[in-house]
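Let's practice the habit of predicting before peeking. Look at the sequence and jot down your guess about where helices and strands might fall. Then scroll down.
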Amino acid sequence: MQRAVIRAVLAGLVLCGCRGQNRARPEERGPAAVLRLLPNQVRYVVGADVPKIRAAPITAKLGALRVVFESIAKEIDAFKTNTGVDPWTQIDSLTMAGATLTSETVIVVRGRGLDEGRLTAYARQQLAAAGDELVGRAYRKRTLWSARKAPDRVGLFLDAQTLVVAKPGWAEKIADIADGDPDTPIAASNRELVSACAEVSANPIWAAGVLPDEARDLLQGDFQLRALGSMRQVTLAVELTDTLVARLAVAFRDGAQADQLAEELAQLIDKERRGTRDRPYMQALFKGLTEYADGSTFRAELRLPNDVVVSLAETAARFANSQKPASELPDPTAHALTMKADWLVPPPTSLAVGELRSYDAWDRQTHLLIEVTNRTSDPVMPNIVVRFRDADDKGIGERRCLLPMAVLLGHESAACDPGVPAGAATGIYTIRTAPADRAAAIAAKARVTLKIVGARLEAAQGAAQWLAGQVKNTGTAVVRNANVHATFYDGEHKIVGFGDATAARALAPGASAPFRLPSGPLFAPAKSFAAIGYSLAAPTADAGPRR
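Done guessing? Here is the structure:
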């Protein structure tokens, strides 16, 4: 994850210093040097101090996420091997600055040992592999580098400690400034920007910007946006201690605008908080967020414990990786876990338990696949509990393994995954069943069986195995919440994963609905499947919308 952090930093988090307005030579390492190398069109800067990020307490915790960033980590490893530059230890700071977010922008990398020959050789190799070519042209005493097919980004080395990547035109201006051209104005002459940077640039991650005069004139000429025309500057500071603290400040010339922004944002946050009660990670964000007007400045502060930040990073990483081909993710590995049935409560004869599989997957989770099959023709309602113990035979908690359809009809099979807590060496599972009359009553009242039509495994195109098909209501009443549960098997018909999906909120008699169902992280490639279409909502007489 350390290398992944650097990759993210290289994509946009940067550092610059903001004091003083005299011109800087490229070799200067002081906090003001970067702004004094940039043209005066700059209106915002975004910064990251890599050594401070490296030393932050949260960085060690994020290190455990390498498995979900494996492809990025491999790219960074290859970069280090081929160039001799280790971004994590050799880069000191980066700066992203610009006049707009999309046009005139520049990234400045400052570090040690930025060898132009080796870095351009690596760029040439990577472009050649993509059918492109690195070309250089002389400017003053330097070489401007760009890709032949994509010349909209230009790289130049000011020295062995400074690499600049900029839009055409800006690269030349920066070279002029670095060579001491007195006719090229510099960003450090913008006192408002210098002042904004000075407020936050001591933080590991920060940003500062001022509103361009032309933008202010445009806003003030628009009746609806006129209030924003009094905005003077925006700053963001991120502290990385035992808690992540992000502070946003928007300074206005008119204090009424700060009050209005605080009120509108408070209303929006309250609405979003109520609308996301079922999302714990959103509630964690809202819990740590405060906002208020401080005179003519609007301020917002977000405080998140490091463990919450890591959890959010894990969630984002899993989603991103779920879209990647399995070839770009680490293979699952079997997890040493001894599973035993509770000898005091042997599994009921009405249920068969398939082979249990425990494994570590790319999502940094330890999975435990449990498949149960109803051996009878009558409904069965299983209750599965696993008690875990460590290597010293000390109990470390229990977990339930819930089947989404609750009741298994005759000869149905379904799977669940309670997960495995850290340090678990053994697991003792207990399977009980509800009384037969209760299972039959629930099945008769709410458990509706739907027909699976034309289901097929899709060609591999991501980390998950996808199952596509249709679910059909063959009954005489409207079915609410048509769901599909699928179990995936290897070539020996042993379970390798499972998945669930909702096909339709309402399904009229005789109607069908398509579904695409993703598996979770698989133990091995899926070769076959079994699918159940069902609903747990009592059928209704009409398909009208419910409110």
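How did you do? The CA atoms of residues 250 and 453 lie 57 Å apart.
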